[in-house]
Amino acid sequence: MAELRLDCLGEACPVPLLKTQKKMEGMKVGDILVVEIDHSCAMKNVPEWARKEGHNVEIEEVDDGQWEIYIEKTK
Amino acid sequence: MEKKHEYYDVVIIGGGAAGLTSAIYCGRARLKTLLIEKSLLGGLATYTNEIANYPGFPDGITGLDLMKLFEKQAKNFGVDIKLTDVKSVQLRGEDKTVETFRVIYHAKSVILASGGKPRLTKAKNEENFLYDKGISFCATCDAAYYTDKTVMVIGSGDAAIEEGMFLTKFAKKVIVSVIHDVGIMDANKIAQEQALKNPKMQFLWNTVVDSFEGEERLNKVILKNVKTNELIDVTVDGCFLFIGYEPNTEILKEQIKLTKQGYIITNEKMETNIEGVFAAGDVRDKFLKQVSTAVGDGAIAGVGAEKYIAESELFQNEIMQKEKIGLIYLWSAIDEKCRNLLVHVEKVEKEFKDEIKVNKIDVYKNAGLAARLNMQLDVPAIVYTKNGNIIKVLNDISYENICRDLKIINE
Fold first, then answer.
1. Is residue A59 less than 8 Å (CB to CB) from chain B?
2. Which of A30, A49, A58 lies closest to B84 in CB terms?
3. In whole angstroms, what is the distance from residue B278 CA to residue B303 CA?
4. Do residues B185 and B257 share a domain?
5. Nearest chain A residue (CA) to B75
6. Assuming Cys at both sites, which of A5, B237, B272, B300 could form a disulfide with B149, CB separation 3.0 to 4.6 Å?
């Protein structure tokens, strides 16, 4: 099971969400995508979308105002 | 994927006003504290535009700004914060666990401050349009999307009316569906007056949602007049539900005692039915749900967790020690007989100080500690232990009787 990273630093909504959706398409079940963001709006819509899709989500604040969203593809 | 194990003194579930306050108290007590929040910190308060009755802010403050201050204060005290969903909990016993999708967190004490989620109308097709498909719960979050569009608000409480007015800053029209008769709303009077004067707001009285309609996105809400049963088609671009909250206690119900509605039952010390597990804020069965009461709950739960952990350590390391024969004197300082017998106990303590370890528990001051002995005991009483196990209870206390007992235990 692979762990992939997606750099969305400096990118405003909805770019991180669109990139995440695209990247997830090509992933296998069980793979984990780590999305790096620093726009707080992406902290809302990316996890919201991923949870609604049924994936597992965890957000970690790696620095002040910078986050990593862990998404495990479940289906 | 193998889950990681991490160890904390306290794990707090929920990052609203109650959880953050508990975190502040636990952090300040130098406990290793983790707070887990499933979406964004701040909880329900961040959905309120203006908080005018939280003491200390005479000019008012937005819910978002107030919660940012809570968060900063918790972080100042070294609290770890994780933004993720709790998948399951195991709350019984000393080693309690809280599991997320990547980690199993072990805690000595757990504080449940998971609040609630918006209640749904249960009307037809509702689940097809939730969140980004047209049914929303947060005007602050989604208002801008509805610039120059028509939206509906369901409900007439403070949140419905205040958020409805906020929406008029963006939307061209805000239609409010109210279940009550003409002119009756649940919101505070000031909000009601302002709303009725607002030219962009329109009210549909005596109505509830019958169904939600649309293709990909919601474009129509069909209301039903509760008096005439007449169906009313209303074309909208979005709909906001403000009809109350339901507690987030789904994962707790096998372990924690809940009310019929699903709220956690606690006593005034925020203790639940499980030792070392506390609840605070909107998730509790309580009279008033406000930031100010959540803060009070959070403080009590935080201090409760600290005391529970300190007591556990004292109990294990001192009272149930294994080095010597243990003599635990359960007494009450306000009882004369207990005070008189203290002399006997202290005489024994002096004489046998190499062989026995004496602990005195004032059951009035340390009820929790006494309860851990797992016995219904009338004071005064003496409990003997050997190798950390209780072996005998003495009620007829005297110097002679203690000496006799110690002799027997020593053999």
1. yes
2. A58
3. 10
4. no
5. A64
6. B237
The three-state secondary structure class of B247 is: strand
CA distance A59 to chain B (A): 5
Domain count, chain B: 3
Q: Which of A59, A62, A63 to mutate to test the interface with B (most CBs of B within 10 A)?
A: A59
Reported residue count of chain B is 411
Do B234 and B256 lie in one domain? The reply is no
- Chain B residues within 8 angstroms (CB to CB) of chain A: 1, 39-40, 81-85, 100-102, 131-132, 141
Burial of B280 (0-12, 13-18, 19+ CB in 10 A): buried
Touching check for A31 and chain B: CB below 8 Å?
no
Look up the domain containing B356 and give its range: 321-410
Backbone angles phi, psi at A14, to 5 degrees: -95, 20
Using a cut of 0.90, tell me whether the model's pTM lies above it.
no
The domain A3-72 having CATH identifier 3.40.50.300: the answer here is no
- Residues B22 and B111 both lie in one domain: yes
User: Distance (Å, rounded) from C-alpha B345 to C-alpha B397?
Assistant: 9
Q: Which residue has the tokens 């009787």?
A: B401
Rounded Cα distance, B349 and B353, in Å: 5
Instruction: Tell me the β-bridge partners of B107.
Output: B8, B96
The three-state secondary structure class of B146 is helix
Looking at the DSSP bridge assignments, the partners of residue B338 are none
pLDDT in tens, A38-70: 988 888 889 989 988 889 999 888 888 899 999
| Interface contact A43-B40, CB threshold 8 A | yes
- Summarised one tens digit per residue, pLDDT across range B188-202 is 999 999 999 999 999
CA distance A72 to A50: 9
pLDDT for residue B299: 98
Shortest CA gap B101–chain A (Å): 7
* Distance, CA of B379 to CA of B274 (rounded, Å): 25
Q: Which of A4, A13, A15, A27 is catalytic?
A: A13
ipTM score assigned to the predicted complex: 0.74
Q: Does A34 touch chain B (CB under 8 A)?
A: no
